Amino acid sequence: MTNVLPLSKTHHVAFDRDLFTIDRDYRLHVNPSFETQSELLQRTIIEQDGERVALPDESLKPEYLAQHNAALAWV
Q1: Is 1 in contact with 63 (CB distance < 8 Å)?
Q2: pTM for this one?
Q3: Total of domains in the chain
Q4: Is residue 22 part of a domain?
């Protein structure tokens, strides 16, 4: 099992800044305070809130997601 989340540079920065996360069911959750004027981020993050993210099986360790999300006050 690996621990890989394939993201573009832009989306990687957004993830690292806690603007969105993924839960154990691989559903995308957006930080409620995240606002953007970027059409790309609006379309690929904000409008996808609650949607299941297609990832290769076992690409993310559930323990990592739980630890990451536990540190987020808004999750």
Answers
A1: no
A2: 0.86
A3: 1
A4: yes
